[in-house]
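The methods section describes the discrete structure representation at length, but only in general terms. What matters is that the chain and its backbone geometry are given together, residue for residue. Nothing conveys this as quickly as seeing an actual entry. For illustration, here is how one protein appears when written out as sequence plus structure tokens:
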Amino acid sequence: MKKLLLILMAAIMITACKTGGEKTTVSDNPFFAEFDTPFGVPAFDKIENKHFLPAIEKGIEEQTAEIETIINNSEAPDFENTIAAFDYSGELLRNVTSVFYNYNSSNTSDEIQALAKEIAPKLSAHSDNMNLNPALFSRVKVVYENREAEGLDGEQLMLLEKTYKNFVRGGAALDSVKQVRFREINQELSIATLQFGENVLAETNEFKMIIDKQEDLAGLTQGLIDLGAETAKSAGMEGKWVYTLHNSSIMPFLQYSANRELREKIYYAYINRGNNNNEKDNKEIIAKIVALRLERANLLGYPTHAAFILEENMAKDATQVIDFLQKLWTPALKRAKSEAKDLQDIITREGGNFKLEPWDWRYYAEKLRKEKYDLNDEVLKPYFSLENVKQGVFTVCNNLFGITFTELKDIPVYHPEATAYEVKEANGDHIGVLYMDFHPRESKRGGAWMSSYRKQYVKDGNMVKPVITIVCNFTKPTATQPSLLTFDETSTFFHEFGHALHGLLSNSVYYRLSGTSVSRDFVELPSQIMENWASEPEVLKLYAKHYETGEVIPQDLIDKLQNSAYFDQGFATVEYLAASFLDMGYHNMSSFNLKDVNDFEKATLASIGLMPEITARYRSTYFNHIFSGGYSSGYYSYIWAGILDADAFEAFRENGLFDQATATSFRENILERGGTEDPMELYKKFRGAEPDITPLLKRRGLI
């Protein structure tokens, strides 16, 4: 009755949006009705910023009413009336927040960022109101304690166990005094982590290295010169060249620019984002986040934040993670030092009288790759146009799983640069919708990621189909060339598509278990295994075609690409592992002793013996993964999952790259299952045994 009353009230009320003083009514807010769009995708063409806050407030109101209905149910608590009912609750809120937070990542603005700061504490409070609701937890606990008598199947049992654990980890078992402080911590963290990411984006966007002399372009490829000219033109500086801190700009600049002074300038701008002692500085925010996370873990009975996080991961504790990282660190560092010597030799041979520095590494590594393998990105890029790579990914997915991708022209998109595709089974059945958004812009954060606008689950006996998005920051097309990808960007495309498959092919009953709702160190398996197909000779011949002539990549280039597979792997592994150790350093402290972020970072990296020629992949003040994203105490997971994917891909090597039985097993045991079973059990169902680390070590040339 209470829920019905709330719905009736909402239907006649006019809700004021607090941003910009505008008004929006129930009738004109697109979130308050089913989207009248193809496949029910969000009505991006109708959604305005003024709609978000009223819809989120109404979503909170509706889910609160749904929780009250669960609590007030006169029947004894059981799986259906408590656990399943809780899983189904909050549909409107999920629909709104999925759009809002995707906007904040890929199409943000000052208004969106202001809204985010207003919305974050509301959502934090709402989450705490559910997790700390004693009546709700009491019902969940009854079902959990009677679980053996419920006759649950495996997926139901997993949902029950995860729901119960989430309540406990969400503070439900704390006393009232501790719960007050727990709420305060969550509120403060919701704002601090948001601010961290905003500061990184602002500092990334603000820096522009302006070049006005032709001679300062020495070494740059024509494509990179054209990119700099077009960036300058779009910034109102026609006739000059501009390079930015977006990866698709800075990384090739460091790779090709012969001007050492300019390399150093842009490098220091990159590694000092969030560390400039200005209003965008992140050092105090980091200290606050680390202290709050530790305090929250202690409140819940954990010695460290890492202990709290890792309990739910495949690597159950920090000791196991650190031991694992150390096993890789020793051979990786040895290889990196050997690589550094090779680069220093080139400097000396060319008459340089300076020591190799981090801003030199990529430049001289490119020279060495050309020397050793007669290979560079400029030779490869014509064969990796974005369109050809995209078709290559589609072909691989079709050969593996029979699925097809059809572009949708008459469908709303959230930005003009985004495209949408319908994904279908071999028999034509609809699987879901996939959005893709490829190039950098100031409204988009850096990096590449997959997310969802709607996850797959079953509602009232009907399958809710997923709406998935992948967002990247690939090299833009120029006036004379289409978007031509480096092979690293090509691998990134395959990687993110693996995440997309995990969301699209999900076949779970319950929302909280579907798709990528798995432990952080398992979620990278579907993405990283996809990267393997990108470089296989058989697959390269399917998609790597010259953008002008249509010529298939010649065998000699394939051979060079294969022969150079181990090239610079010491550097790549060391810079990654250094960031992983830094993550663990912040989150494995059992007492807060962070006086100065830069000093802490320096001491942490010195303790592992990081060589001065290499900088950690992410320095603290722009380490979005751990201070703004969901990877705190979990950045190690990429290389942990590397063990899984290297071992898993061996099954395809043994049976055939497109062997249908192997592909079907991977789909049914990994991609479809989400978080419905223990990840190691799922892996063993696919592979028949636990993974072996040897294929990973071989792949990186460490043995």
Q: What stands out?
A: The chain has 28 helices and eleven strands. Residues 318-349 form the longest helix (32 residues).
